[in-house]
Amino acid sequence: MDLDELNRLAIRKAEALKVDDAIALSARGTDSMIRFADNSATVVNRVEEAELTVYLAKEKRRAIASTSNLSAAAVKKFVEDLFKSMKGLPQAECAPLPEKVTKYSQSGGFDRKLEDVEEKLPELAKVAIDSSLAAGGKRSAGVISAGKATVAILTSSGTTGSDSRTAITLNIRSFGEGEASGHGLSCASTLRMFDPAEAGKRAGEDANRMRLASEPDAGKYEVLLSPTVASNLVETVARAASAFSVDAGTSYLTGKLGKEVASTSFTLTDHGVTDGGLGGRAFDDEGSPTRTTRIIDQGVLGGYLHNLTTALKWKSETTGNAGLIAPHPWNLEVGEGDSSYEEMVKEMNNGIILTSNWYTRFKNYRTGEFSTVPRDGAFLVEGGEVTKPLKGMRAGDDLQRLLTSARLLSKKREWVQWWEVDTPTLCPWVLVDGVSITRAYG
Questions:
Q1: What angle do CA 28, 414, 434 make, to 5 degrees?
Q2: What tens digit of pLDDT does each residue of 346-390 get?
Q3: Could you tell me the domains of the chain?
Q4: Looking at the whole model, is its pTM more than 0.85?
Q5: Concatenated DSSP letters for 321-358?
């Protein structure tokens, strides 16, 4: 069955069960991938997946579930079993579905060349590897993933729509002498904007520069966050702006609407659909049109992300960010600054440049206290000059203090998406003051 037929089958069965509201959301994705290690390809494959998600509501009870067993008989049984499971659920206030939506925006990132890019992946991987070697890296490992995702929706109120997106991402890690390593990314919604050479170059240069790295002294530093690192933290800010997180008591942005939560140089926007965006779509999981939402405007928290149910509770309106359970961002954009990377480094008196990180963990979601582990390229800056590479440290702060201390942002921004950043984010370099750095081994 195609996606529209699959949705019709699920909705017909739901209507036969006399539900109040029903949503069928089907998705099909094709992903081509090449994995490489020690400068050579190790795995090349192509995966096709399909899934159906169904939402049912009756007498203030709701149930949601997904299945990948998509035969006609299996879908009918799946909907019926889901309906039966609602009987034991408690009642809760929930918003009815909107009236039939008839038109969605169709702008955004789609490239037919990425539908059949599998044969080009070895060549693209070689470009990244060769660029890393030329920049000083000794060996490289990583993955390129490219493909197309299509999502179709049908609701019991008659809303129907379909949207397709393409994306290609490269994650490359290069290694030098001893423990030296560097990291590079390239993410794009079109093949034309994909730049494996630049990603490989960055990884190789940092791997070469990280020779003889040492641990820093513990203390407070100016820290220059690369788009890769900044995006990881920005995504947590956007998720804290979900009204569901606020209601659940896990958001540091609780009670801060209209208040200053960042420096005046910092603006954060979510786009359902945007040119160049790797994620998002024209409609959310409830069939509401997605849109552009200003989360933080020149440092001030402008609003939370809503679905229909959270909007009902907050006496607001949906922002087109459903999540049937929790509203979530689609494509994030941090506003550009007015500095170059070189100017930002020269502004640092006693600082550290961080190019990559992992294991971001929260001590307290409610206060925004977190720590993260820098890895790959990290460098000490003294008097505006890079003086030596660093390793073996952890950076800690709370999100509001970090953002209110953002002093400079770069003019140039990059799209970031990888295993530490689920939500595609267009982000600049960000210079912040007073970040706590501790040593990893003593």
A1: 120
A2: 999 999 999 999 999 999 999 999 999 999 999 999 999 999 999
A3: 3-209 (3.30.2290.10), 219-439 (no CATH)
A4: yes
A5: -B-SSSB--SEEEEPP-SB-HHHHHHT-SEEEEE--EE
